[in-house]
Carbohydrate-selective porin (Saccharibacter floricola DSM 15669), 423 residues
Amino acid sequence: MWGLRSELGKYGATLAIQETSEVMGNPTGGIHRGAAYNGLTQAVLQVNTQRAFGWYGGTFNVSMEQIHGRSLSADNLGVLQTASGIEADRSSRLWELWFDQKFFDQQQLDIKIGQQSLDQEYMISSNALTFVNTMFGWPMVPSADLPGGGPAYPLSTLGARARYWLATPLYLIGGVYSGSPSRSWSDDPQKSNSTGTSFPLNRGVMAIAELQYVYPALGAMVSPDGNQPLSYTYRLGGWYDSEPFGDQYYDNTHTPLASPDSTGVPRNHRGAFSLYAVMDQMIWRSHGTDPNRTINIFGRVMGTPQSERVPVDFSMNFGLTFKDPLPYRTDDTFGIGMGYTHVSSALARNDKAIHRYTGNYSPAQGGETFVEMTYQYQFCGWMQWQPDLQYIFNPSGGIPNPVHPDRRIKDELILGFRTNIAL
């Protein structure tokens, strides 16, 4: 950055800017056929307090987002599991603003306080982040069930998080956050909090905890003449949000919402929760001249038994990544994966009730499945190209097509090309 990064480094500050641009289109299926451009510029500034002014173990972080383009998923696809992880409303907004403090000589404990996006630390599969589809990042269950999709990109919320090194190789991470990223109870948080500076504290509370088993553990040693171990990370966790959640079938008088006698106001339930498990497992490593050549598998499952109060009660992702798949392409990655989500039984029951009361075409929603194949090509040190192919089966679990309401949205083929530029 013309010497700016070097100058900031003298004061313990690190500045990173990344532009992600992509063109995606659906030549078949969907509500409409067509293509769309979508883009995200991110800027992150971190300050190491020890280097800046002698305060041991502290890190200050502030990050911004500038989102441009339009959403193919909303305009053309009508899916639950959106095709791109950067799709969001056009805006320029504050993303995260926090301070993290490490304690003890071996940094066994660190505490983070401030505006945080939970998809940076919880429920993550590091191998799944290779892919383009949103659901390989923040999962479908919290995306659909939590207010505003939860405190995850492009949103965040105030809270406090603690991470403790229990014993090699166990870690416990947990936090308490505002129950919603917006002060409003009814508006879209991306619109009502368009700048990311609302800092709501008038809502419920979201609590989340995760146990991590990491191998090899921090500080583990390998014999100079020994083979590198096949690493893995396992996570078990759960979240609870105390916000009110609307019933998917009954109104506040216990009348079906689809009934002409309904008030149209869903019956409220206090709180909702979900449990999840995540696996990252290296299954092969080259013992030749390139030890970075590896094959990894990953998986994540998440669900809730409270199907009467949430639109989605189960989701899962599985896949495989091949690092350095071609000779002399040490920074490339090939990936193939899939995702599945299931609409709650109460919402499917409501679909049947709509047909019963109105006679309109209203098929009961079920499951939505997608597969994705992608290749990250490191064009140069600061630029990455990524062609991508996705296919979505039974979009949104089988909802009617808004353009042709007498039939479902057809299965969709999605072709895309993404460019990542790091400054």
Summary: The chain has six helices and 16 strands.
